[in-house]
Amino acid sequence: MKAIEKEKLWEEYQKNPTPKLREQLIIEYAQLVRLVAGRLSMYLGHNVEYDDLVSYGIFGLIDAIDKFNLEKNVKFETYASLRIRGAILDQIRKMDWIPRTVRQRQRKIDEAIKNIELRTGKTANDADLAKELSISEDELCSWQSQLKVTNVVSLDEFDESGPEPVMDAAHNSHYAQPEEIVTQEELKALIYEVLENYYKDKKLEKEQEYSNSLTLDTAVDFLTHIGFPTSKTQLYRLTSNKKIPHGKYGNRLVFRKNELLIWAEKNTTRYDR
């Protein structure tokens, strides 16, 4: 898609953010996900499947598309790359795929290397490292084998390593190897699978939000039901004095069940004392 066509698509989407226009933008920028996932895949090796990284990244791309502001002087590719990377790293952290002891050993080795090189000005060898860590060379070899198997990477360091390079996916081969695992057609299939789950989740969120919302009348009934009898007049007075959590939808007062439960519990406790 040419630059002028992209600009027109963005203008249409920001005026009327329909699912169809969002999907067009996702397809257009899907290569960004491949590039970011490809870079991270090289750090993680075979610990996480590449297509899983792509799936996590698509959520980041969707988030970037929904939150991007054309009026700000920021290139979308740069903004989206950060969102994509953040979404992937967040999901990997949730997985907790590296044992804590292995992480600790990686940090100890890194610290030992740094200390040796600062002290001697030379590259640390295995004998130096073993001595610095107060372990035998055989034990150091065992540590290194574990690290090699898990291909440990500090996600915090990766997260702080700066923005992703913005690349022309059609001509760049810097991260070609992992990206070739997912073809263009497979990428589209992944996108539609992620989108299907995304829309299901959004629908569920709306249903939960709706079931959690109360009008003035239903809030009175709800509070009475949980043992905190009140009236519309009393409730309205509490909202006017900002003594009860509430919001407004147009001119109507709205309440949330969970917030009213907390409020009622606090006030009941106070009155019981």
- CATH homologous superfamily title of the largest domain: RNA polymerase sigma factor, region 2, helix turn helix motif
CATH class of the largest domain: Mainly Alpha
User: Reading side by side through the largest sheet, how are the strands ordered?
Assistant: 1-3-2
Question: What distance lies between the first and last C-alpha atoms, to the nearest angstrom?
Answer: 68 Å
Question: What percent of residues are in strands?
Answer: under 5%
CATH topology of the largest domain: Rna Polymerase Sigma Factor, Chain: A
CATH hierarchy: architecture of the largest domain: Orthogonal Bundle
Low-confidence stretches: 165-181
The counted number of beta strands is 3
Total individual domains: 3
Count the DSSP helices.
14
Biggest sheet character:
3 strands, antiparallel
Share of helix, binned: over 70%
Shape: flat
Strand pairing plus helix content: what structural class? mainly alpha
Report the order of strands and helices. Answer: HHHHHHHHHHHEHHEEH
Overall average pLDDT: 77
What is the gyration radius calculated from CA atoms? 27 Å
